[in-house]
Amino acid sequence: MAVLHLSRSGSFPFCVLPASGLWDPTSSTLPAGYVGPGTYYPVGLSLADAMRWYWQAKTWQAAAAFAFSGTQPNPSNPSFSAPITDTVTVDRGGTQRELVCPAGVSGGDATVSLVVWGTGASPYAYSWGGLIYPRLAFSAQNAILTVSSYRFLVAIPKRWPVDGTADGFTLPLWYDEAGGYDSVGGASGDSGPWTQSRSGTAVLSITATY
């Protein structure tokens, strides 16, 4: 029989562990247990908001709209454009009674991927500074560009110029482009000079029943 977990949180069916600290996203290393922008726990919520995300959200929708274009010194492909436009909806599934067992949200397609709370392989949430940081990972990609809510290349921080949102909360984004289009990382084939433009938004919107 499933019962509500009463140790530590008293509000969720899992332990909410204390975080090691708030991560500095300019750092070249990411130790385990840190939260904040650029980590897999990027958004800090009040207890009431975190409970709403877990107990009342029936559907999560991840919508991506990015534009990435420019010119490069490759004579066979001097101009490039790599737009990303996609929407993925993930139903919570089951009944609300089943949420007394730890339940994460995971879904996506070839372009957009979304994880909320996680699936148990990592802590569902951390606490820091009086806030709850759920596990949250969002990414959108095509053959040239990847934009995500976490710094997948820790040593090369490249901030996307527009923040996304997660249920109204600010979600800083990072990006990486394939080597032939990488004007920052110095990958093989980079010979510059070239120009790039980046624009777009990433929106995670929640539909909840109260």
Strand runs, count: 16
SSE order: EEEHEEEEEEEEEEEEE
Q: What is the overall silhouette?
A: globular
Rounded to the nearest angstrom, the radius of gyration is 19 Å
Cα separation of the termini: 26 Å
How many helix segments?
1
Tell me what portion of residues adopts beta-strand conformation.
Answer: 35-45%
Largest sheet: 6 strands, mixed
Average predicted confidence as pLDDT: 83
Q: What ranges have pLDDT less than 50 throughout 5 or more consecutive residues?
A: 1-8
Can you give the helix content as a percent range? Answer: under 10%
Would you give an account of this structure?
- This protein is mainly beta and 210 residues long.
- Helices cover 5% and strands 40% of the residues.
- The chain has one helix and 16 strands.
- It has one helix at 47-56, and strands spanning 17-18, 21-22, 34-35, 57-71, 79-81, 84-91, 105-108, 112-116, 125-128, 131-134, 136-141, 145-148, 164-166, 169-171, 174-177, 195-208.
- Strands 4, 5, 6, 13, 14 and 16 form a six-stranded mixed sheet that branches. A five-stranded antiparallel sheet has the order 7-8-11-12-15, with no helix packed on it. A three-stranded mixed sheet has the order 1-9-10, with no helix packed on it.
- β13 and β14 form a beta hairpin.
- The longest helix is centred in the N-terminal third of the chain and has 10 residues, at 47-56.
